Amino acid sequence: MSEIKENLTDTLVFNHIPFPIIILDKDGLVTWCNQHAEHVFQIEAESVIGQLSSYMNPEKAALNKHSWDKLLHTEESVRFENIEIELGGGVTTYTTVVAKSYTFDGQQYVMTIYEMNEADKDGSSSIELNHLRNGLDDSFMLLYFDQEFLITYANPLFLKLSKWTPKRILGKPVWHMFGDSTEDVQFVDSILSTLRQGEVWNGEAKKVKKDGGIYWVELTAIPMQLSSEDTYYIFLEKDITANKQAQKHLEEIAFIDPVTGLENRHRLEQIVNEYIEEGRHFSFVFMDIDRFYTLRDVSDTDVENELLIEFTKRLRMYFSDSIITRAGLHEFALVTPLSNWFIEGFLHYLQQHPIYLQGTAVPLTVSGAITKYPEDQHSFMHLIKASYATIKKVKERGGSEISALTPDDHERLSRKAAIEKHLIYALDRKNLQLLYQPIVNLANGKVERVEAFVRWTDSEIGVVTPDELIPIAEENGLINKIGSFVVETACRQLSDWKAKNIDLQISINSSIHEFRDKDMAKMLLENLKLNDCHPSSLMIEITEKFALEAEAERSIMAQMKNLHQEGITFALDDFGTGYASFRYMLLLPISSIKIDQMIIQSITKQERIQKLINGMIQFGKSLDFQVTAEGVETNEQFELLRAMGCDSLQGYIIGHPMTATDLEKWLG
């Protein structure tokens, strides 16, 4: 028993849970108890070990209509209500006991947690505190956190609303219940900062359910200082989601823009959806005033408003039979039956009817997009996305143009919509696959690492490459599922190669969105352990954009450092194309850089490019980075990079991305 006792005594969560805990063996005999149990029940741990527990044992379980044998074999926690407890000195009280079966070192044990604290031993005051606790438990969502802000208790009201289960929430950090945006992280930081100062925090909080749904609570967070070394925290929460939704509804019914008098974006969405439900054909016209911020810089608010009012007048005069809305600060959207040639003529109308401010004509033009329903797109969101994509192209050409979708636009948007639609099914059915591209070590000529690329071949869409798949997955929120698939598949492959005595490291590409999941590092390490793989067999490649964002988010840096300490290495991918920063190279656990293929493929074209690449290689080596060149395709490139002292090469001259089976044959 010394091993389990040492394990429990050293576990932070058990030391700081503010309730008595007693561990029983499969026969109901005491094997361990924490200090809270000793204080509350006035017992000594050494004297009760090996004795039958008087509070929870096979007989007590049966009296509470629950089989001890069933308790030993269930994975769920079992609650026993109104258990009579003796506090010492003849004082008794009633409490709830939570029992949870688990296996340690091949032996079956039952952990019993008594939902009371040391104050309960004070006799009559404990009854009053129990009544208070029960009243709070019945009226509020109640959460307890230890000194490290790990969840140690969640009451039934919280579990019911949030849809979490004890198994999924206990032991998790406070961040687990909140969103992962920068704003959410800063908000939770402010709560924790207040609590660490010993002060109560009160206010409204937006939280996340297990299924990703949002709910709002009135939160009171209270620090509980038992001693200088024993602190825990309580969250009392009241659901105010209905009130927030009502408030939002009241805000949204104010459909009129106060400056222009036009209906706003909320009303625009309603109108479009009504037209779609009625099956009406229409053109969705989106306009963005060119260089609006430049126009604003030379005017005050009153003049800016006058500009918008005058522009609105021209819209109303030209599009007299259309619905006109103000969709943003300098964006306007129309729902109209008019033909493309007439809509495009608005630019000429603006030239004929210029806007004068303080006696001076304003050189105002617009960039616009025409998207037809149902010919082009089939929902409000797709109409908006198509409009933005078209306007982006117009602005890249200099603006002052209203453009309809081209056949290429149709094909691209249709393919994107098809990918979004089919991707969910592909992930559910695990239709994606990993291909592996070899990377050769120039020092010994051996392939020591391969990079994994996710590929998807769909019967309708065809081949979808990472360059096409990943941006869409990031946009629609499926990037984490793809990341999990890559990790699981790569770890299984490492295990398979290990069994075949193939010694290879796999590098995988990771997105910043994946690392915003607080359980990313845990998931990755669990997969490595499940497949009996050493962490050093995995490398994670990140972009410079990822590195810049990670530098500003503590939770991401913490996960990266945790993985690095376990043995996982990190490489900076596409080096030389982003925002290279010496700062994040020092702060983040990066041990390798990969020079982007666009730079490498220009190595034979200019002497200056050769000097640049040589400088990048020497720079990497000066920081003890392993330097890899990507996209090497010719012998001339190969020899130049070898002469410059590049550590390893990747590219078609070495090998194309291939299946695991083909790679094994290629290596053989």
Essential attributes:
single chain; 668 residues; alpha/beta; Beta-Lactamase; Alpha-Beta Plaits; 4 domains; eight-stranded mixed beta barrel; 43% helix; 26% strand
Average pLDDT rating: 85
CATH topology of the largest domain: TIM Barrel
Compute the separation of the termini in Å. Answer: 51 Å
- Runs in which pLDDT lies below 50 for 5 or more consecutive residues are none
Percent of residues in helices comes to 40-55%
CATH class category name of the largest domain = Alpha Beta
Strands in their spatial order, largest beta sheet = 19-20-22-23-24-25-26-27
| Gyration radius, rounded | 32 Å
Please indicate the percent range of residues in DSSP E strands (runs of 2 or more). 25-35%
From the 3D coordinates, which CATH architecture of the largest domain would you assign?
Alpha-Beta Barrel
Tell me the domain tally: 4
Class from secondary-structure proportions = alpha/beta
Count of DSSP strands = 27
Question: How many distinct helices?
Answer: 29
Q: Describe the global form.
A: globular
Domain GGDEF: 280-407
Domain PAC: 201-252
InterPro entries: Biofilm_reg_signaling, EAL_dom, EAL_sf, GGDEF_dom, Nucleotide_cyclase, PAS, PAS-assoc_C, PAS-like_dom_sf
Domain EAL: 416-668
